[in-house]
Design goal:
The chain is 39% helix and 27% strand. It is of the alpha/beta class.
Length: 256
């Protein structure tokens, strides 16, 4: 991962770990339940969650597998994941590690996952390559993230708005591009599911600790996209409250 992007992510999530752990994005149970159905974790599985954040996936998956390991570059996030603590999971471990340099031997895990993280990676192919390296042949890779519109201009507008709100944001992919990214890294996609989540603008900015003056500018930019839905985020005003949609996609693939 690019050093500048890595520093931005570590600094951002060190400051906002607690707020992120309580955010609507983390609380999106429909997305996690969808990933459980697609990945079908089993008691014999050895799970690695890359960029595990506040532990939302670990909390759900750990009781279903034989061993669960969460890796994240930010110590404050690992503390949140420890507090979330998957009950009943006898073999549950947390490791401070960057996704682009995983400290595990080749072919250690049978199920490797990452959620809400691809759009923060400076070099997602490098991270996916590491995920492939530590996954056993025939093992599963589970990826879940927000996605942008297939229309390139709309997606570019969304990325502009997202980066203004949070400089640690790199880029959302279109659904097709995210799937192509996985297949280009040697995975065969076997399942996919998507949906959308309503986000409240004020909460979204608080989670990223966006300065008030910047938040005002982000709000203005988002309001400007209402006509024609120019960022693919479907913003609406409910009284004075600005709401919009984040679209998400879950993909499960097999390592060839």
């Amino acid at each position: 991962m690019d050093d500048r992007i890595r520093r931005l992510n570590e600094e951002r999530f060190a400051r906002t770990a607690e707020a992120f752990a309580k955010s609507a994005a983390v609380g999106n149970l429909a997305e996690i339940e969808s990933l459980v159905r697609l990945a079908a974790p089993a008691p014999a599985d050895l799970l690695l969650d890359v960029a595990c954040g506040a532990g939302r996936l670990l909390k759900t998956f750990a009781p279903l597998v034989g061993m669960a390991v969460g890796a994240d570059a930010t110590m404050e996030m690992l503390r949140q994941a420890r507090r979330a603590g998957p009950g009943g999971a006898a073999r549950f471990f947390l490791v401070r590690a960057d996704g682009s340099r995983l400290p595990f031997p080749d072919e250690t895990f049978t199920l490797v996952a990452t959620t809400l993280a691809i759009h923060h990676f400076g070099d997602p192919r490098q991270v996916l390559g590491e995920m492939a390296r530590v996954c056993r042949p025939g093992g599963k890779i589970a990826v879940g993230d927000i996605v942008g519109a297939s229309d390139e201009a709309k997606r570019a507008r969304q990325n502009e708005i997202e980066r203004l709100r949070d400089p640690a944001h790199v880029a959302v992919y279109s659904p097709g591009a995210l799937e192509a990214l996985l297949t280009s890294c040697g995975f065969a996609v076997i399942g996919r599911a998507g949906g959308k989540q309503v986000r409240e603008f004020g909460e979204w900015c608080r989670v990223a600790a966006t300065p008030p003056d910047v938040a005002s500018l982000v709000r203005e930019r988002l309001l400007q996209t209402i006509a024609g839905d120019e960022a693919g985020m479907q913003p609406t005003l409910v009284g004075d409250e600005l709401r919009f949609h984040h679209h998400w996609l879950n993909l499960v693939a097999v390592r060839r």
